[in-house]
Every structure is written in C-alpha cells, then in structure tokens.
C-alpha cells in the first residue's frame, strides 16, 4: 500500500511536481542559464519623436522668418554688438566649418538620422530620448536645407542667423545638435545606457 501524506499526494506525485518545477525554471532561465532581464517599461520613442519634431519645427520656422524678413538687410542688434541677427548662407558644417564638403556633410547628416533610428529600437531612457531627439531634430533641420535650398539638391547652403560677437554664426539646428551632444556626454559619464541600464566602470 502506497504511503500518502496529509496533502493527499504520494511519492510519485511529489516527484512529478519537482520535475515540472525544474522544467519551468529551465525555461525561465533560457539559454546560458541567465535569468530574464527585468522589465524596463515602455520604450521612449514618443519622447524622442516629440523632441525631434519640436526642434525641427522651431528651426524651420525661424529660418523661414529670417530669410523673409532679414536676408539682404543690415544686421539687427539683439544685445547691442554682443548678439545680432545676421542671415548668411553656409555651405559647410555647423559654425562655418568645412565649406568645401557640402555633399559629404549631407551624407553624414543622413547617416546620423539612420543611426538614431536604429538606437531607438532599444531606447528605454528618457534622458537619452531627449538627447537623441535634439540630435535628430537638429540633423533633420540642416539636412532639409541641404536638400531643398540653392544651389542644388544635396548641395544646399544652410541658413545661419544667430551671430554672437567674436563667434561663428549659427542656427537653432546647430544649437540642438550641440545640446544633444553635451547631454550624451554627461549621460555616458554617469554610466546610463540608452536601454535604461546603469553600469559602473
């Protein structure tokens, strides 16, 4: 006669239960015996898109206004001679660098957009979403100029109009790119990755 404990299960029942628990544990651990990563919440793609769209819209609107109202006119003083609005057409990179590399810079800007789109697939960090959104919006703003403005497609000159004293003339897209880059550096120093994990070197 088989011995039955108080729960009503015999030795065979208990053995089967242990085997099932072990099988479930193996399935949860997956390959390599590692436990599944904890849930990180929702991806922050909407934040990235919203920041990028805001940066892009502000850049495009500001350029439309200054080209229509200020181009071919005398500079307008905002803070005396320390800060002026002066419209120029820049075929180079941010702050007037690389004027002979317009096509190359266009390709680089397009590559930045593609890279950010790939990173977005594993984006769970809000600060990283903001930083990448600034980069994306700024890159798209200047890329729009290079595609649609004279002298031709992929050779267009970027509209710059913010002219501080003793500094290069730039635009809002350049500002977004610089701010996004600085934020990425700070996040990297803090050990925060785009997927939301924090590492300590």
Give your account of this protein's structure.
The chain is mainly α. Helices cover 51% and strands 8% of the residues. It contains five helices and three strands, in the order ααββααβα. It has a three-stranded antiparallel β-sheet. β1 and β2 form a beta hairpin. α2 runs parallel beside α4 and α4 runs antiparallel to α5. It is globular and about 55 Å long. The termini are far apart. The N terminus is likely disordered.
Describe the structure using short key phrases.
51% helix; mainly alpha; disordered N terminus; globular; 3-stranded antiparallel β-sheet; 5 helices; 201 residues
Question: Mind sketching the topology for me?
Answer:
Elements: H1 11-29, H2 45-69, E1 76-77, E2 83-90, H3 102-119, H4 126-148, E3 158-164, H5 172-189
Antiparallel strand pairs: 1-2, 2-3
Give the N-to-C terminal Cα separation: 63 Å
- Proportion of strand residues: 5-15%
Strand order of the largest sheet: 1-2-3
* Helical content class: 40-55%
Report the structural category: mainly alpha
Largest sheet: 3 strands, antiparallel
Please count the helical segments.
5
Shape: globular
Rounded mean pLDDT is 81
Short synopsis of the structure:
By secondary structure, the chain is mostly helical. The protein is 51% helix and 8% strand. It starts with 10 loop residues before the first helix and ends in a 12-residue tail after the last helix.
């Amino acid at each position: 006669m088989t011995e039955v404990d108080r729960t009503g299960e015999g030795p065979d029942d208990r053995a089967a239960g242990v085997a099932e628990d072990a099988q479930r544990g193996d399935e949860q651990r997956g390959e390599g015996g590692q436990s599944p990563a904890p849930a990180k919440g929702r991806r922050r793609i909407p934040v990235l898109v919203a920041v990028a769209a805001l940066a892009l819209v502000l850049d495009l609107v500001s350029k439309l206004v200054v080209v229509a109202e200020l181009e071919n006119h005398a500079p307008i003083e905002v803070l005396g001679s320390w800060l002026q609005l002066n419209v120029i057409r820049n075929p180079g990179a941010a702050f007037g660098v690389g004027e002979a590399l317009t096509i190359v810079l266009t390709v680089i800007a397009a590559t930045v957009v593609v890279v950010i789109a790939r990173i977005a697939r594993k984006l769970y960090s809000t600060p990283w979403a903001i930083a990448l959104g600034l980069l994306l919006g700024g890159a798209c703003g200047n890329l729009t100029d290079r595609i649609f403005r004279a002298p031709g497609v992929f050779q267009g000159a970027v509209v710059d109009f913010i002219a501080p004293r003793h500094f290069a003339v730039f635009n809002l897209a350049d500002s977004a790119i610089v701010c996004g880059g600085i934020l990425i550096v700070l996040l990297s120093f803090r050990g925060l990755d785009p997927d939301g994990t924090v590492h300590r070197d």
